[in-house]
Amino acid sequence: MSLTTPRTRPETGGRALPAVHDAVREAARDHGVAHALTLLHAATSPGLLPAGHGGHVLVPAAVEATSPSYDTPDGPRARRSGPHEEHLARLPLPDGDALVALRIPGAGPGPRGATGWAHGLVHLRLGLAERALREAAAHLRGRSVQGTAMLNLPPVRALVADAACGLAEARALLRAPDADGSAPGRAHRALDEAGRVCLHLLGATGFATGGPGDAIRASELLADTYAPPPPIPEGDRP
Hints:
mainly alpha; 3-stranded antiparallel β-sheet
């Protein structure tokens, strides 16, 4: 899949965002975490490390290595080597790539691409959840209990339905008007629950290093790193 996607630019008024969201969701579903994050980064903040509140960054290793600046509430700043950046972890992914976790003092969501990145992450996580449910269903279809495929057992089907409902809730929240700004946070919570159900359905496979559970856990870490701001109180809305 090509990494060429519509860019989000101020002069477009954000009209390219739906195309970006669709491409990122498809990339996450079909190609995994690193590919989709690289696509989203190229579309929303090329050359810039997107940062969450508290200065935390979680991006593919290739993005970290090729981004000369980082985001702050006052706009981009050039990166400096040395103790200014705290490398927290390197997280392997099932496809052989890795995510790098950093903390950069003073970094945070800025005016250049933070909104596009944050909204794109919800669509990316939806694609990852769709991938996780597909993998869980395939896992269960290949296992049986007393001659019955596990996927056809009523308790298992109930869990699959719970995960599917979480995905449906997230899709609905992303399509509906968002008057108070609460939709991204609510969609993240629905996807957290759906991912945890998929982990349960995968059994021991979901907790093995290098397995599908790595992507589910990375998805939840992304939501924690780039948590959306709290909803606007009704009395403060324009």
